[in-house]
Amino acid sequence: MDQYLQLCQTILANGAVKDDRTGTGTKSIFGYQMRFDLTKGFPLLTTKRTAMRLIVSELLWFLKGDTNVRTLIAENNHIWDEWAFEKWVKSENYNGPDMTDFGLRAAQDEAFQQIVDEQMTIFRERILSDDEFAKSYGDLGPVYGRQWRSWPSADGSSIDQLKNVINSLKNNPDSRRHIVTAWNPSEVDQMALPPCHTFFQFYVADNKLSCQLYQRSADVFLGVPFNIASYALLTHLIARECNLEVGEFVHTLGDAHIYSNHMDQVNEQLTREPRDLPTLTISSEKESIFELVTSDISIEGYNPHPRIKAPIAV
Fold it and tell me: Is 79 among the domain residues?
């Protein structure tokens, strides 16, 4: 994962200081590309522990076209909770403590962090136990899963982009149209978070499947390690579905940034030596990738450095 560490070093050395939507501030560069040969191991970051179980359950959530955090919370996956929680605390039905700018305030105030944690626990419990509450506040709008599997067309029907790409890969592998996009301009304003990983394309050569992702916005410390592993896994899954081997994952970044409150964590990570990459195992018991559950996918030989905590910018 030297490519990832080089990205961090490049931003620290050459990044422009910029304001951002969250009010946190970043160091940022524009236009950067990394390439990962998937035949040489699974690109899961080793300079800090990265939770593969969360990556797997999120990707399967996308593949099933789901957009409600209830599914993820039931699997103890909380990476989307803040955006659903924000929807609740900004609503007229919320009557708890003031949660204005809760992400920034919690990062600076341990006592307030405890209050946020208490309200988040209440929120998660209601999402799991109350169908109407989950419907109102658990749904994130037409985010990735909806666009991948049920893109709304002009005639009122929907387009399953992922199934179409799989069929295209099987029947016309040399096509240059193996594309899935999550960026739907007509629905961006309805999404809890507009897609950061916006567009991906597959390519077949020598019976190997490669994938290139364009990511418009890249949180380099927290998000990018997840994105690398998620799209590497997606490439493996689509290759399996199409009876192909894996080739490369190519990661093209637009605005690649390190948040100002992640600088110490990045510098700590840069002191660590990368370790050998793990290998990916996918159960052969399920015929289709759309039947897989989280426990069907695992990694072996993962020996990372310890986790490094950092606040998420909401």
Answer: no
Residue tagged 């955006």 (tokens): 83
Rounded to whole angstroms, how far apart are CA atoms 141 and 67? 7
d(CA 117, CA 115): 5
Which residue in 37, 66, 103 sits closest to 251, CA to CA? 37
The total of other beta-carbon atoms located within 10 Å of residue 144's CB is 24
Asked if residue 254 belongs to a domain, the reply is: yes
- CATH for 26: 3.30.572.10
- Give, as one character, the DSSP assignment of residue 44: -
258 is in an annotated binding site: yes
pLDDT, residue 14, reads: 97
Would residue 176 count as lying in a domain? yes
Q: How many domains does the chain have?
A: 1
Active site residues: 196
Helical residues (DSSP H) of 150-305, grouped into ranges: 161-171, 223-241, 263-270
For the chain, what percent of residues have pLDDT higher than 70?
99
- Domain with 218 in it: 2-67+141-300
The verdict on residue 148 lying in a domain is: yes
Instruction: Check if the beta carbon of residue 233 is closer than 8 Å to that of residue 55.
Output: yes
Is 257 labelled as part of a ligand binding site?
yes
Identify the CA nearest to 293 among candidates 84, 138, 139, 71: 71
Instruction: Tell me if 55 is assigned to a ligand binding site.
Output: no
232 is in an annotated binding site: no
Q: Which of 162, 157, 230 minimizes the C-alpha distance to 202?
A: 162
Stretches where the chain sits below pLDDT 50 are none
pTM value surpassing 0.85: yes
pLDDT tens digits for range 178-214 = 999 999 999 999 999 899 999 999 999 999 999 999 9
